[in-house]
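call fold(seq) -> C-alpha cells
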Amino acid sequence: MAHDRNDPRGALVLFSGGQDSTVCLAWALQRYARVETLGFDYGQRHRIELDCRQTVRRELAAQFPAWGGRLGDDHVLELPLLARLGDSALTTERAIEMQANGLPNTFVPGRNLLFLTAAAALAYRRGLSVLVGGMCETDYSGYPDCRDNTLKALQVALSLGLDTPMTLDTPLMFLTKAQTWALADELGGSALNALVAEHTHTCYLGERGQRHAWGHGCGHCPACELRAAGHAAWVAAGGGAA
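ret:
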C-alpha cells in the first residue's frame, strides 16, 4: 500500500461512482487531511452511478479505516442544463457512434468545464483548496476537456476568478487504463481492486446485471470496452497475481 503523504490541505473529489473517480478518491484519501466528494446529476442515462457512489463511499470507509477517518461530506449538484444544451448519447436514448468532427456522440460539450467551475465554487465555500478529477488524455475518447492543457488553463482561471490558489489534481492524466488498475493495487491492494470491480459503475448504458472480471456492465459500450481491455492488459502484465 502507498505511503501516507500527510498533506494538510482539504480536497474535493469529483466522484461519479466509476472506476476512475474511485481510484482518484482513494488517491486523495491517502494524501490529504480532509476529503469531500461531489457528484453531478445531469440527466445521464447511466445515472445508476449516483446510487453506486454511496456504496463505494461506505465500502471504502469500512475496509480502509484510516481513509474513513478522512472522508468528509458528500455533495450532489443538479445540472440539467447540460442535457438541454445539446443531444448526447450520455443523456438521450440513442446509439453510441462517432460524429463527423471525430468525437464520439458521448461527448457532452463543456461538461468538465462546467463541473470544475461548480466544484471550485463549492470548494471555496467549504474551505477546500484542491480539486481532484479523473480526467485522462492517455486512454480517453478524444474529449478536448480531458486534455492536460485544458485543465492547466482552467486551474489558472479558477484561481484568478476566486482570488485564491486552487489546485487541480488529475492523478490519472497520463496513465493507461491498465496503469489505473495498477495504481489502485498500489494504493489499496487486492481489496481496493475488488471493491472497484464489484461496486463501481462505468457502463454508459447503465447496465449492472452481468458481472465480468473487470466489473458490471454491458461489455460493448466504449466505457466497458476500455475498462475490460485495461483489466486484461493489467492481468497479462502480472497484475492481480497472488
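The two ends are 15 Å apart (CA to CA).
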